[in-house]
């Protein structure tokens, strides 16, 4: 006779996620609830999140927003886990994570698995941003264009 399997021990949420991560999950749940309730003005939501950021994150997010919208105007503005994000056909393609959101050293421009950035077997899907030069802005525009195909 086979012995009964032992139950899997699950980590407590309090021990697993930081306060910042829990807040992001609450923001995501609120975004989903709001979307179910009707039409959401994604651009206004995104700009509102940028306005709440402190400098230098606000300046970086504002610039990234302009670059993304110019490079791929077909992307819809939205928020995703409380971060400025851009979607194609309702699916998040890329997002801006401000450094202060998770008490990080730098902001990031991240791409989801919906982004078409595949390049062989290994490729970056997140890029650190501390400041933006003209060359950096051009690179971001190229990445966004490639991401939407």
What number of domains?
Answer: 1
The CA-CA distance between the termini, in Å, is: 56 Å
Strands, total number: 5
Number of helices: 5
Note the overall shape. Answer: globular
Can you give keywords for this protein?
alpha+beta; globular; 149 residues; Aspartate Aminotransferase, domain 1
Short description:
This protein is 42% helix and 18% strand. The protein is α+β, with helices and mostly antiparallel strands.
Structure description:
The protein is of the alpha+beta class. It has one domain: Aspartate Aminotransferase, domain 1. Helix content is 42%, strand content 18%. The chain has five helices and five strands; from the N terminus they run H-H-H-H-E-E-E-E-E-H. It has helices at residues 13-16, 19-36, 42-52, 57-71, 134-148; strands at residues 76-80, 83-88, 91-97, 107-111, 126-129. Strands 1-2-3-4-5 form a five-stranded antiparallel sheet. Strand 2 (83-88) and strand 3 (91-97) form a beta hairpin. Helix 3 (42-52) runs antiparallel to helix 4. It is globular. It starts with 12 loop residues before the first helix and ends with a helix.
Protein topology:
Layout: H1 13-16, H2 19-36, H3 42-52, H4 57-71, E1 76-80, E2 83-88, E3 91-97, E4 107-111, E5 126-129, H5 134-148
Antiparallel strand pairs: 1-2, 2-3, 3-4, 4-5
Helix pairs in contact: 3-4, 4-5
